[in-house]
Amino acid sequence: PYDVLVVGGGPAGAAAAIYAARKGIRTGLVAERFGGQVMDTVGIENFISVPYTEGPKLAASLEQHVKEYGVDIITDQRAAGIGKGELLEVPLASGATLKSRSVILATGARWRELNVPGEAEYRTRGVAYCPHCDGPFFKGKRVAVVGGGNSGIEAAIDLAGIVEHVTVLEFADTLRADEVLQRKARAMGNIEIITNAQTTEVVGDGSKVTGMKYTDRVSGDSRLLELAGIFVQIGLVPNTEFLKGSEVELTRFGEVMIDTRGATSMNGVFAAGDATTVPYKQIIISMGAGATAALSAFDHLIRS
Ligand code: FAD
Q1: 205 in active site
Q2: Which tens digit of pLDDT belongs to each residue from 99-129?
Q3: Which of 24, 115, 208, 270 places its Cα 20 to 30 Å from the Cα of 67?
Q4: In the prediction, which pLDDT does 228 show?
């Protein structure tokens, strides 16, 4: 059995594994895909002290750093639950079960996609999901934000300070964002809000996004917006389906509930990164959270 078993191999899981292994305790890391969302990222400009890097390069450095320690890395395996016998048990989809004295959950999240033609083709070539990450790439250009919830309107306000113009497209007939955010957005001169808009296609010139088509759900007319970028803000879904029904408490959005030390509601189980209730989902924040969870797991082990 392990002393610490990390589930997930993104920035949170990698940081947790390194911090745990540096305590000289038996550390395992199981992940479907090492690198996590970082593998889907092109330019990264906010990983502090590294002015520019690219996702696959950062993911390779993460893996190399973890491999400098005696971490038992198991990839291409999916955790299917969490339970407790004498030790904590993590059953895998393959049928095997991993046992450990403590567990750190770092399974991350995925952006909900529009599922319209062109979206996958132009992902990272105009289709973006993170305004903190990619907003500055669209300086002085016209962009759209799809989604009129809190994250969509926050993104629009954020982007409006950088880009020339923001069009918000909301499927419903009203915005779901908090009134205070809506007021702020409406007061900005370069944000236009269109409700009853069903996005139907991401349009591009073969190398980058040039626009977006949507249907006006009231008139039934199809319209084309000319744009350089599209920010999809229709939800971030935590990869925590496998924890449903376990002792690990989730919010109604599926986020693992953690305290400031990264502890979950299940004894000996800690969590970090995008899969949790941590505010703001970013690489640097996930890494810090992974370190916190590992130190808390170590603290738990020396007390039990
Ligand atoms: P993830 O990176 O999501 O990693 C989760 C890990 O868990 C993966 O290894 C996955 O395979 C594994 N996993 C999931 N489910 C299971 C399971 N059941 N069993 C086993 N393993 C499992 N942030 C920035 O700071 N700057 C940026 O420029 C930036 N750009 C981004 C661009 C894109 C396109 C995307 C999608 C995200 C971007 N982010 C950026 C956000 C950043 O990538 C995330 O905040 C960060 O990766 C979260 O780290 P994590 O370790 O919590 O989760």
Answers
A1: no
A2: 999 999 999 999 999 999 999 999 989 999 9
A3: 270
A4: 98
Q: Is residue 289 in contact with ligand 1, taking CB distance under 6 Å?
A: no
**Interface predicted TM-score (ipTM):** 0.99
Set 40, 72, 130, 221: catalytic member: 130
pLDDT tens across 249-279, in order?
999 999 999 999 999 999 999 999 999 999 9
The three-state secondary structure class of 297 is: helix
Known catalytic membership, residue 133: yes
Active site residue 134: yes
Give residue 41's pLDDT: 84
Any ligand 1 atom below 6 A from CB of 255: no
CA of 150 to the centre of ligand 1 (A): 21
**Residue among 29, 30, 37, 65 whose CB has most ligand 1 atoms within 8 A, to mutate:** 37
209 Cα–ligand 1 center, Å: 24
Using the predicted structure, report yes or no on whether residue 48 has a pLDDT greater than 90.
Answer: yes
Residue 42: pLDDT band by 50, 70, 90 thresholds?
A: confident
Measured between alpha carbons, how far is residue 207 from residues 7, 122, 228, 273 in Å? 37, 8, 11, 33
DSSP category for residue 217: T
CA distances from 76 to 9, 33, 59, 90, 104 (A): 11, 6, 16, 15, 18
Do residues 28 and 4 lie in contact, with contact meaning Cβ atoms separated by under 8 Å? yes
Is 274 a pocket residue for ligand 1 (Cβ < 6 Å)?
Answer: yes
Amino acid at 127: V
The whole-angstrom separation of Cα 255 and Cα 259 is 12
For residue 283, give the ligand 1 atom closest to its CA.
25
The closest alpha carbon to 155, from 166, 140, 141, belongs to 166
